[in-house]
Design goal:
The chain is of the alpha+beta class. The chain has a single domain, classed as Nuclear Transport Factor 2, Chain: A (Roll). Helix content is about 30%, strand content about 35%. The chain has a 6-stranded mixed β-sheet. A hairpin with a 2-residue loop joins strand 3 and strand 4.
Length: about 170
């Protein structure tokens, strides 16, 4: 009798366990980015690249918030839209006067409806060396924090890193 009571209790416990609603798995993935925000953020990156490739410092600066921070591949820093515009104007008169840039959005992570992190692959062709010769294409990663202000996405923080050139294959003996 004890065995049948134990078996009945186990059966009831199993039934109750199986009939309980399944708890949702803990949410570790970031929330999905709404299509309208994804498109607007991707366009923001395209606007930056287009302004850069046209050597239009004002168009580049227009993609930034008023108090943005910009840090380039060499660690040079500018703060605020006006300073960023001045920085790019100098570059476009100098070593980037013939440069063309392509930024391809790799990922967008939304932290809130007004804050997003963006990773984009970057390729810059046409950078000039100090002697005026062309440097090889520069490949890197652009990391942005973008904020939505008055319904429009703007770059708040910009960092980019240049990937090192590929290593030569070791010589075979």
């Amino acid at each position: 009798m004890r065995y049948s009571s134990l078996l009945a209790a186990q059966t009831i416990a199993l039934f109750l366990l199986l009939s309980m609603p399944v708890a949702a798995k803990p949410q570790h993935d970031p929330p999905a980015v709404p299509a309208t925000d994804s498109a607007a953020i991707t366009q923001l990156c395209a606007d930056f690249s287009t302004g850069f490739s046209r050597h239009d410092a004002q168009a580049v600066a227009a993609t930034f918030s008023d108090d943005a921070d910009f840090t380039n591949m060499r660690g040079n820093h500018s703060r605020g839209r006006a300073e960023i515009e001045k920085w790019f104007a100098g570059l476009f008169r100098g070593n980037l006067k013939d440069a063309v840039r392509t930024d391809t959005v790799r990922s967008i992570r939304l932290f809130s409806p007004e804050l997003a992190a963006i990773d984009a692959d970057t390729v810059i062709h046409g950078t000039k060396a100090p002697d005026g010769s062309n440097l090889p294409a520069r490949n890197g990663l652009m990391v942005l924090l973008a904020i939505k202000q008055n319904g429009r996405w703007r770059i708040a923080t910009f960092h980019e890193e240049e990937y090192p050139p590929p290593r030569a294959a070791p010589e075979k003996n």
